[in-house]
């Protein structure tokens, strides 16, 4: 087995494993939605009957929990969609062009997706480590100085969700990991397209 084949197998397994974890996010969002609907329905049925069923009310922060679950599923699916070429592709004129020109277009498409993955990766990094305001020391400086207590305090006092008041930095970290995998997989796909372009074979890759 060549180095390329081992790399392809590793990337495929990594993307598949992350996509399966993302499926857990969809299951979580579905369960939260169903349970909240049932509680809301039960609350309306037994409303004004007895205080025994006063606990039948929708789950607090249902929208936020569903958003977290679906968001994780979407970010986790990016590497799998990339390596399986599952993204939207307009191939109306593909039969008209030659095989080599189509490979060039495929390479350009993967390069663009890799660039987008890099932009998302760096943008989320700045959201996670936002600039300090006023006289506060930047978070990066605190980490470099070894002031982990100060850095942890800065992260605890960072942005929170509106309803549940949950800190948002863990969601940024999870999304950053998913996008980092997406970026690595996208780079591999660019490599795969270059090999296909330089290969004398006409087999579709």
UniProtKB/TrEMBL annotation:
One GO cellular component this record assigns the protein to is: plasma membrane
Domain called Tripartite ATP-independent periplasmic transporters DctQ component: residue spans? 58-195
Q: Amino-acid biosynthesis: is it a keyword of this entry?
A: no
Q: Which residues cross the membrane?
A: 12-39, 65-83, 104-121, 169-191
Q: Where in or outside the cell?
A: Cell inner membrane; Cell membrane
Molecular function (GO) terms for this protein are: transmembrane transporter activity
Q: Return the similarity comment.
A: Belongs to the TRAP transporter small permease family.
Q: How does it assemble?
A: The complex comprises the extracytoplasmic solute receptor protein and the two transmembrane proteins.
What does this protein do, in the record's words?
Answer: Part of the tripartite ATP-independent periplasmic (TRAP) transport system.
- Protein name, UniProt field: TRAP transporter small permease protein
Q: Which organism is it from?
A: Neptunicoccus cionae
């Amino acid at each position: 087995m060549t180095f390329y084949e081992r790399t392809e197998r590793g990337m495929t397994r990594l993307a598949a494993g992350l996509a399966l974890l993302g499926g857990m996010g969809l299951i979580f969002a579905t369960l939260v939605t169903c349970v909240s609907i049932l509680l809301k329905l039960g609350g309306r049925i037994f409303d004004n009957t007895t205080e025994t069923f006063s606990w039948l009310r929708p789950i607090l922060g249902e929208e936020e929990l569903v958003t977290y679950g679906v968001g994780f599923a979407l970010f986790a699916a990016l590497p799998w969609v990339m390596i399986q070429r599952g993204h939207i592709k307009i191939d109306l004129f593909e039969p008209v062009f030659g095989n080599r020109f189509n490979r060039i277009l495929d390479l350009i498409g993967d390069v663009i997706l890799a660039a987008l993955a890099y932009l998302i990766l760096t943008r989320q990094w700045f959201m996670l480590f936002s600039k300090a305001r006023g006289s506060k020391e930047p978070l990066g400086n605190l980490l470099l100085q070894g002031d982990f207590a100060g850095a942890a305090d800065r992260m605890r006092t960072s942005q929170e969700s509106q309803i549940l008041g949950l800190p948002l930095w863990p969601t940024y970290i999870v999304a950053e990991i998913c996008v980092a995998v997406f970026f690595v997989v996208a780079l591999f796909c660019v490599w795969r397209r270059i090999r296909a372009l330089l290969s004398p074979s006409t087999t579709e890759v």
